[in-house]
Design goal:
The protein is about 40% helix and about 15% strand. It has eleven helices and twelve strands. A six-stranded parallel beta sheet has the order 2-1-3-4-5-10, with helices on both faces. A two-stranded parallel sheet has the order 6-9. The chain has a two-stranded parallel ribbon with strand order 7-12.
Length: about 325
């Protein structure tokens, strides 16, 4: 059983393999990934989960955010909030701008806290088919979203290299599983399948069925967050969080359809929102050896398991858009 996240290490604990954390300030706990992170950490850590109404990271200024850090006194700050769609300036503000503010606030208000942010495989841009991209490979994002995420990652890397913050980025590939929002191709597929099954339709239309993606279970993403919080001194500042496998999107869709009992036809829809955001990247696969070596992390859930869990929760999770999840939000403790 893994050590609990209950106390800060003292001078005699330098050789321990795990860093313990007593209080975690978690932003984005109402979102898809954030709810799974909160559910996992709640058993062992004292969580503080501000709502957007309590602390909107896009609108809050640095002094006010610093005051939140000083009042909360967290051992770790985890940001699962962000924007995946919208105008370019909106994504820059929500991803890179927020990260810049968090770095300033953590450095001033909780300098001993580890700052963990969730990045994206979109930071890499196109990857050569058949290859698994490594963290050391050049990043060449080709979408507004990818650029905003890469800018945020570079801010963390620069601040960490300068000793201003203990910052780590988990570069998440295509997260799937219970509570997946419709902004993701498989989340949209689940909604369309639910509609088709309920209304007797014999086909659904989707974009980018012939692309290859690295789908990682959201529960494994949460485990990666926990692993980086436990790590005493991560050797690197960026880690791929992926399955290590490239799967044709059509095959993943068909796997989800089998879970739903749908036997109809899939048609191409290149005007779908997910197609627009992912166009230009035909292949994506992540090398996860760095996370395995430094964090002792590896994915535990196969794609079939993820699809079964996604479909099982689709009635609850697909009714409220991008902020939905089939998990209860743990009560914040202050």
């Amino acid at each position: 059983m893994a050590p609990a996240l209950v106390s800060s290490p003292g001078p005699d604990d330098e050789r321990r393999e795990d860093r313990t954390v007593s209080r975690v300030l978690l932003f984005g706990a109402s979102g898809f990934i954030g709810r799974h992170v909160a559910a996992l950490l709640a058993a062992d850590a004292e969580l503080v989960c501000p709502s957007r109404a309590e602390c909107d990271l896009v609108d809050v200024d640095v002094p006010a955010l610093t005051a939140v850090l000083r009042r909360t006194r967290p051992r770790a700050v985890v940001n699962c909030a962000g924007r995946v769609s919208g105008a370019g300036h909106e994504m820059v503000a929500a991803n890179a701008g927020v990260t810049g503010k968090l770095i300033e606030a953590v450095a001033a208000g909780a300098p001993d806290a580890r700052l963990v942010r969730l990045g994206s495989a979109a930071e890499y841009g196109p990857v050569r088919p058949g290859e698994a991209v490594r963290e050391t490979d050049p990043a060449n994002p080709i979408s507004d979203y990818g650029v905003s995420q890469f800018a945020a990652t570079r801010l963390v890397e620069i601040a960490a290299a300068a000793g201003r913050v203990d910052g780590v980025v988990l570069r998440v590939f295509n997260p799937v599983g219970p509570g997946l929002p419709v902004t993701n191709v498989l989340g949209r597929t689940a909604r369309l399948l639910r509609d088709a099954v309920d209304n007797g339709r014999d086909h659904i239309a989707l974009g980018l069925l012939d692309t290859h993606r690295d789908f990682v279970d959201v529960r494994d993403v949460a485990q990666a967050v926990e692993a980086v919080l436990r790590a005493v001194d991560p050797a690197e500042r960026v880690y791929n969080v992926a399955s290590g496998l490239a799967v044709r999107t059509r095959d993943a869709v068909e796997m989800l359809a089998r879970a739903a009992g749908f036997t109809g036809e899939f048609r191409s829809d290149e005007l779908s929102p997910t197609a627009a955001r992912s166009s230009g990247v035909a292949w994506m696969c992540g090398d996860i050896s760095r996370a395995g070596k430094a964090l002792d992390w590896a994915p535990r859930h196969g794609l079939a398991d993820s699809m079964t869990a996604l479909w099982a929760g689709s009635d609850e999770a697909l009714c409220a858009g991008s902020e939905t999840a089939a998990l209860p939000l743990p009560r914040s403790r202050r």
